[in-house]
């Protein structure tokens, strides 16, 4: 019996993993847990994990804050679109996107066609607390994070809700959210 879950054993998780024939792409606002939960999810499923924000930083050889500062947001979005297309093409098991990636029409269409999109949703107050821990998100630097995240939640909700699977990413062990994703994918497949 696995340490991973009280209700699912390794064989049951492996059975779901075998039925997943496309990358699982995590979408949602900054701080919902795409990167941290995504890593756990990939381990659970014994699949590879890649973080699109990190892949963009690798490709540009500089941190996201510096890309925004030196070249602006639209340059970042252009790179983000190209990097995510490449990551989907490379067929990674689990891909954590940046919070704004799924808003781009081309990226969203590609993810919806070639991957399993999972929207992790979360209360704004929780996101304010989590994103306040590290000052690495350029969109939250100039203004009140609560106001900015509330606005982004309202503006992006119509896009995120195009994902066929939605999971709550409230506080608790990351493993619980990762397991909720496994269960939701199993129901959806
Ligand atoms: N379910 C959870 N319970 C408790 N803390 C969490 C949970 N999910 C994420 N966190 C914490 O919230 C912070 C942000 O998480 P993470 O970096 O995974 O978010 P993200 O969705 O990748 O954000 P971004 O879009 O900015 O990359 C981290 O400190 C992480 O440990
Ligand atoms: O929500 C967003 O638009 C962003 C989220 C982060 O993951 C990074 O991709 C970047 O800081 C922009
Ligand atoms: Mg992330």
TrEMBL record:
Its EC number is 2.7.1.71. It is found in: Cytoplasm. Pathway: Metabolic intermediate biosynthesis; chorismate biosynthesis; chorismate from D-erythrose 4-phosphate and phosphoenolpyruvate: step 5/7. It catalyses: shikimate + ATP = 3-phosphoshikimate + ADP + H(+). ATP binds at residues 31-36, 137. One of its GO terms (cellular component) is cytosol. Its cofactor is Mg(2+). Substrate binds at residues 53, 77, 99, 156. It holds the Pfam family SKI. The keyword Protein biosynthesis does not apply. Mg(2+) binds at residue 35. Binds 1 Mg(2+) ion per subunit. GO terms for molecular function: ATP binding; magnesium ion binding; shikimate kinase activity. It comes from the Bacteria. It is an enzyme of class 2 (transferase). GO terms for biological process: amino acid biosynthetic process; aromatic amino acid family biosynthetic process; chorismate biosynthetic process. Keywords: Amino-acid biosynthesis, Aromatic amino acid biosynthesis, ATP-binding, Cytoplasm, Kinase, Magnesium, Metal-binding, Nucleotide-binding, Transferase. Catalyzes the specific phosphorylation of the 3-hydroxyl group of shikimic acid using ATP as a cosubstrate. Belongs to the shikimate kinase family. Monomer. This is Shikimate kinase.
């Amino acid at each position: 019996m696995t340490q991973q879950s009280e209700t699912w054993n390794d064989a049951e998780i492996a059975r779901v993993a075998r039925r997943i024939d496309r990358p699982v792409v995590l979408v949602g606002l900054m701080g919902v847990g795409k990167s941290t939960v995504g890593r756990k999810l990939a381990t659970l499923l014994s699949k590879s994990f890649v973080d699109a924000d990190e892949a963009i930083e690798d490709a540009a050889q500089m941190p996201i804050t510096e890309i925004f500062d030196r070249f602006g947001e639209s340059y970042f979005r252009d790179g983000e679109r190209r990097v995510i297309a490449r990551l989907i093409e490379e067929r990674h098991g689990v891909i954590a996107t940046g919070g704004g990636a799924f808003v781009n029409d081309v990226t969203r269409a590609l993810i919806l066609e070639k991957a399993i999109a999972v929207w992790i949703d979360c209360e704004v107050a929780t996101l304010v607390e989590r994103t306040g821990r590290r000052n690495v998100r350029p969109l939250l630097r100039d203004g009140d994070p609560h106001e900015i995240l509330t606005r982004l939640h309202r503006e992006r909700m119509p896009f995120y809700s195009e994902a066929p699977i939605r999971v709550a990413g409230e506080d608790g062990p990351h493993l619980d959210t990762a397991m909720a994703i496994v269960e939701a994918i199993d129901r959806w497949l």
